[in-house]
Amino acid sequence: MNLYTYEDACVPGVSNGDAKQPSNDAARVDLLGEHPQDDYSRYSDAADAAVRALADPSRIVHISYGDFPASDYLRDVTIQRGLSAYDTAKSIGADTALPADLVQGLWSMIVPIAEQLREFGVFGPRVEVPEDAPLQDRLLGLTGRQP
Predict the structure, then answer these.
(1) pLDDT, tens digit, 9 for 90 and up, residues 43-98
(2) How far apart are CA 92 and CA 37, in angstroms?
(3) Burial class (CB in 10 A: 0-12, 13-18, 19+), 104
């Protein structure tokens, strides 16, 4: 959860166009403190507010791996978070069924760039899944996960 909090802590600065963002070493700092739920909510709420205030999604923002439109940055954060929900649930033995609208949204975002993300090492090799499988299973296979 601290990693998610760190990511949320970066969103306002990135969205505002700040050129200097915290290093990855900053992710090792405990941002959750004595009241982890409250602290997580505070960072999450600030990230949400920054995204809602972003008037121009095509605005170039600065992230550790280059300069990109804010919409690309937010897309990448959304993909990472959405897939992490599945990965986390699987790792702790919880129900891995994702909400249908999340699966559809991730599918729509990932399909056009899946091979590019695979080339960058974001996804492992595609796992073959029958075309008539549920969309979540096809999404998992597309992203290199075994459904």
Answers:
(1) 999 999 999 999 999 999 998 778 999 999 999 999 999 999 999 999 999 999 99
(2) 19
(3) middle
